[in-house]
Design goal:
The chain is of the alpha/beta class and about 130 residues long. Helix content is about 45%, strand content about 15%.
C-alpha cells in the first residue's frame, strides 16, 4: 500500500502539472486523481466528486491532497476533506512540489506532506545574474 494523491485545482492547472511530472519522471508511482474547478462550477458537486476520489485513492495509508490557491474554491473543497490521520492538504501546488512528492512514494502521509511543502518552497528561487551563460 501507499499514500494516494488527489490534485484539486482551477481548470486544467493540475492536469498540466501532472502531465509535465509524468514526462519528467516517465512514471507515476502513486495512485492519482484529479479534480478541476471551473469558474462556474458547483462546489457541492465537486465536493462529492472529491469524496468519491478520496475513497478510491485511500487504500489504507491515507491521501495527500494538493491544491493551488489557498482560500479559493479548490482549497475550500480540499479543506472539507480533512480527516485527522487519513488526509493531509497542501496548497500552492507547483511542479517542483509535485515531482518531489512523486519521487518519495514510500513515505507515510505526514512525511509526504512535509516533502510536498519542502519541494514547493525549495523549488522557488531567484537565479543570480552570474548564472547566465556567457
Amino acid at each position: 500500500m501507499s499514500v494516494g494523491l488527489l490534485i484539486i485545482t482551477h481548470d486544467d492547472i493540475g492536469r498540466a502539472l501532472l502531465h509535465s511530472a509524468h514526462v519528467a519522471l516517465a512514471d507515476s508511482p502513486l495512485a492519482t486523481g484529479m479534480i478541476s474547478a471551473s469558474r462556474d462550477c458547483d462546489p457541492e458537486a465537486l465536493l462529492q466528486q472529491a469524496r468519491t476520489a478520496l475513497a478510491r485513492l485511500d487504500t489504507g495509508d491515507g491521501v495527500l491532497v494538493l491544491t493551488d490557491l489557498f482560500g479559493s474554491t479548490p482549497s475550500n473543497i480540499a479543506a472539507r476533506l480533512l480527516d485527522s490521520g487519513r488526509t493531509r492538504v497542501v496548497t500552492g501546488i507547483n511542479l517542483p512540489m509535485l515531482i518531489r512528492v512523486l519521487n518519495y512514494p514510500q513515505l507515510e502521509l505526514g512525511a509526504l506532506a512535509a516533502k510536498a511543502v519542502s519541494g514547493g518552497v525549495d523549488g522557488v528561487l531567484e537565479m543570480p545574474a552570474a548564472a547566465k551563460e556567457p
